[in-house]
Amino acid sequence: MPFLRxxxxxxxxxxxxxxxxxxxxxxxRRWISHQEFLDMLGASNLVPGPSSTEMAIHIGHQRAGWRxxxxxxxxxxxxxxxxxxxxxxxxxxxxxxPQIQGILYGVKPVIIALVLQALWALxxxxxxxxxxxxxxxxxxxxxxAGANLVAxxxxxxxxxxxxxWVKESCLSSNLAPIPAAAKPLMxxxxxxxxxxxxxxxxxxxxxxxFGAVIFGSxxxxxxxxxxxxxxxxxxxxxxxxxxxxxVGQVTPGPVFTTATFIGYLLGGVRGAxxxxxxxxxxxxxxxxxxxxxxxRIRRSTIAGAFLxxxxxxxxxxxxxVTYQLSRAALVDFLTVGIAALSAAGLIYFRINSVxxxxxxxxxxxxxxxxxxx
Length: 373
Hints:
The protein is an all-alpha fold. Helices cover 80% and strands 0% of the residues. Helix 5 (98-126) runs antiparallel to helix 16 (353-372) and helix 6 runs antiparallel to helix 7 (149-168). It is globular and about 60 Å long.
């Protein structure tokens, strides 16, 4: 099963996953055409959720209908979930050992560099004109000031739609930015998560909300985790959040399996499964709801405008959370140097992120060893 293999070996984040899928299913297996692949990618970017996972779900549906939709998504997610759950067990059991602390000390600055690389690539693609640049600046300021993250994303999309309406002097009635069938989930999940007590049900609802409202790269998840689990609910410390992100980066498969790690820390194996199901479930729902819209996406001015605004808002959220996380990860000259060299390696030399994380871990172990002497 190709999706099971991809879920076990796909390192490097959403962009790398999508490139691997294009190679596997368009060029090698010829299951779909280049144009069909691009249409699916557009649909995945137009709705919330992890784009690479939603691409797997789209391809599965194209190949084998509704059974293919479920099987492809589950096979892409399951290996990563199990690997991350094993890492979470090791972290919870041995995380206080100096060796583990040394690894994380060296890996965290690399994670900051990885997010900076994503900002570099996504920012160049998202900021297409001065209007979108202005939206990005305002959205970043709002995120740093503590404004609601969902409101920032939706406001960015709505403002861009309004500009498109004025500029084009027309309305498009054949396509809504978000499938109508998905709106009840997006509206209800945040309210339920806020109202629920601190139980496994609350854990499920919080991650269901994340899966239902997060647009763009999986890195945008960091902003929501920081705002909800660290700042608002106080379920995690910022150090634990960085550790969760580090594990999500060093393991293959979707970046959203960071939820598996956090779920394990908060509720053991059941918490890991519940958090994973919660964050990925909306993706299946959105893909199923948006399949009929794929032929219309390219023709819709409204869909394109909404996506432009949301993408800029997502980059803004990533910028704000990168600043916050950097304060916790870059604690001395060595960590600043690791982050700077990692960023240069990623942006200018295209070094695989797995190698950088490995080198960061070695440096961290060496640093702890030197300090301990």
